[in-house]
Structures are given as structure tokens and as C-alpha cells.
Design goal:
There is one protein chain. This protein has 353 residues and is an alpha+beta fold. Helices cover 38% and strands 12% of the residues. The chain has a six-stranded antiparallel beta sheet, with helices on both faces. A two-stranded antiparallel ribbon has the order 7-10. Strand 2 and strand 3 form a beta hairpin. It is globular and about 60 Å long.
Length: 353
């Protein structure tokens, strides 16, 4: 796969790397590293700038915090590194994590280096050019990967302290409310209503598993020829939390049209193009995780629409300040209002608004 096919191109000026400094660090910390070092930047990755490195006939991926003033608790590349390292032999598909650098003097911000996994990526959930059978198989592979993640014994992997025990939804709502308020540049009535209403809707029962936080198709690398997930990427938002909500994040695209959100699949002829229906897809996950059904499913969906709106608002603010890592950041951020309004309508449907 050439670099263009891999989605890598020239490094933006604001994200330039000191390759001499990086080379010296990698020589000390990355096994069998050597050869002339080059870097290109991936066009994906809204939050943490991501690079394709090449040296000595090998490829690596570098993830770093962006420069500039950052929102509290965002861009946690050290947490990404820790969980990828912990999951390496768990059966959950992740890249091999080589090393973490917390010394800002090397390239200007904290970063880590992991292996480059060659395979297919689908930035569009509609998978243009794929057959109905290929879409069905890819969606099933995502479902299987989610079930595998949520069944992992996180304590056995040394991740018992990876998140705080209990009150997951209260803490998440507080976190994303604070994050939204920190990025608020105009009043969004639907967000204000969700902030007020959602704490009253939290289910009494909570479950705990590894919570990816951004488990979606474009954060995965698929096998070059088989319908199998080789690597789940972008663990920045991961913690310990309720797996039902984590899977609902994967499935909220069934409630969003492509016009609402670029990954949305609502309104499509899903059966005709091989994408399963919402009930069918949820049933497959329940079967794989040993459940009969999931209570409070609509709450989990609305919770994630609220999270998404907060995240999109943060992306828009980074675009305005000039430190977002994608040219599409302003467009994504501008959708925060629409997503919040959809979330509020969904909450009203279940009589909780």
C-alpha cells in the first residue's frame, strides 16, 4: 500500500516534527529501529495529529497531543498508549504499542509510537463501491469486535484503576457538560435542556467494562481481503464504563441521516445495501454478550447524542482557534446544534424530556 492509499500526505506546517530529535528518541525506545526517518501526516484523526513514519523499510504510526491551549482532560495520548498496550494479547484487535514519550522537549508535545497496521479503512459507513454482502460482513465484524471488547476481564489486564468505580453516567454527564461549557460560543437551547434532563434519566443499574468511547467504523482497520477487524484505533476517550452505552454510541448512526452527520445511515435502503436494521444489529450484540435484551436502550442512544454534540462543539472551537487536526473540523463542529436537537427530540419521544 503506498502512502497515498494509506491516507498520508505532507505534514502541515503547524504540526512539523523535529525528525532528528524524534530519530534519537526512537533509536533508544523502539525495538529494531533504524534507517533514515521520514514522516507524513494522516488526514484523519480529529483530535490528536497522527503521522505515518517510515525508517529502514518499516512503518510506524505516531499519535501526539496537538500544540496550543487544550480543553481540560482532552487529548489523553498517555491513556491511549496504556490501554492499547494492555489489550495487546487480550483478543481485542489493537495495534502493537511500541513506546510513550512524556518529554515535551522531543517534538513539542507528548506522543506515542505504535505499529502501522496495513488493511482497509472505511471513512464512510455507507461503504461506497462495496457489495451488499461485503457491507453485511463488515458490520458484523464491528459487532463482534465490540462484544469481544466488552467481555474482556479488565481487572486481569491490570486496568482495574483505569476508571473510577460507580456513578459512570453522572460523571460522564458532568465531564461532557463542563467540556461543552468550556467550548460554548453560542447558546444551544437543546443542549441546555439535555444538560438539565439527562441526570434525571440515569438507569438505576450500571455495568462496568472497558468503554472505548468512540467505537465506530472509521476508527477501525479491516483485513485486506477478509471481513475481519485487525485494529481498533483512537482510544483517547476510553475508560471503564457501561458497555451498553459504548455500544449505543456505535449504533446511534441508525438514528441519524447522512445529512445530520456524515456517518448517519437513517433513511437509507439499508436492507437493499446490506446494512442490518437497528433491532437485528442490537440482537446480534446481545447474543454475543449473553444478554436477552438491553433495557433503557433509548436513554443510552440519547446519552451518546449528547456526548457527540459536546465533542463536535469542541472540534469547532479548535478549528476557530486554529489547532484542529483536520480541514473538516469546522464542518463537524457546526453540526453540534443539529445533533443536540435530535437528541432532545429522541428524549421527548420516550417521555423523559
Amino acid at each position: 500500500m503506498d502512502n497515498e492509499a494509506a491516507g498520508a500526505g505532507p505534514v502541515e506546517e503547524r504540526y512539523k516534527l523535529d525528525l532528528d530529535s524524534l530519530y534519537r528518541w526512537m533509536k533508544l525506545h523502539v525495538e529494531d529501529f533504524g534507517g533514515a526517518l521520514t514522516a507524513q501526516q494522516f488526514g484523519i484523526g480529529q483530535s490528536n495529529p497522527t503521522y505515518l513514519l517510515e525508517a529502514g523499510g518499516r512503518r510506524y504510526v505516531l499519535r501526539r497531543k496537538p500544540p496550543g491551549v487544550l480543553l481540560p482532560s482532552a487529548h489523553a495520548v498517555d491513556r491511549e498508549y496504556r490501554i492499547i498496550r494492555a489489550l495487546e494479547h487480550s483478543g481485542v484487535p489493537v495495534p502493537r504499542a511500541h513506546a510513550l514519550c512524556a518529554d515535551d522537549s522531543v517534538i513539542g508535545t507528548m506522543f506515542f509510537v505504535m505499529e502501522y497496521v496495513e488493511g482497509r479503512q472505511y471513512p464512510d459507513t455507507k461503504m461506497p463501491g462495496a457489495s451488499a454482502a461485503e457491507r453485511a460482513a463488515a458490520y458484523d465484524a464491528i459487532n463482534a469486535a465490540a462484544a469481544r471488547l466488552h467481555r474482556v476481564d479488565y481487572k486481569a489486564l491490570g486496568l482495574g484503576d483505569y476508571g473510577k468505580p460507580g456513578n459512570f453516567f453522572a460523571r460522564q454527564l458532568d465531564r461532557f457538560t463542563r467540556q461543552y461549557r468550556a467550548a460554548e460560543i453560542e447558546k444551544i437551547d437543546a443542549m441546555d435542556r439535555l444538560i438539565e434532563a439527562l441526570p434525571r434519566c440515569i438507569p438505576a443499574d450500571e455495568e462496568t467494562a472497558i468503554f472505548h468511547g468512540d467505537f465506530k467504523m472509521d476508527n477501525m482497520i479491516f483485513h485486506p481481503t477478509e471481513p475481519r477487524v485487525l485494529a481498533v484505533l483512537d482510544w483517547e476517550l476510553s475508560t471503564l464504563g457501561d458497555p451498553r452505552a459504548d455500544f449505543a454510541y456505535t449504533m446511534m448512526i441508525w438514528r441519524l441521516t447522512p445529512e445530520d452527520y456524515r456517518l448517519g445511515i437513517a433513511g437509507l435502503d439499508r436492507q437493499g445495501i446490506g446494512i442490518p436494521g437497528e433491532a437485528e444489529y442490537l440482537e446480534s450484540y446481545c447474543r454475543r454478550t449473553g444478554r436477552n435484551k438491553i433495557e433503557h436502550w433509548d436513554f443510552f442512544i440519547v446519552f451518546n447524542l449528547f456526548r457527540l454534540a459536546s465533542i463536535l462543539q469542541g472540534i469547532m472551537v479548535r478549528a476557530i482557534k486554529g489547532n484542529a487536526s483536520s480541514a473538516m473540523a469546522a464542518e463537524y463542529g457546526g453540526r453540534a446544534r443539529a445533533i443536540a436537537e435530535i437528541g432532545w427530540r429522541e428524549l421527548e419521544k420516550i417521555g423523559r424530556g
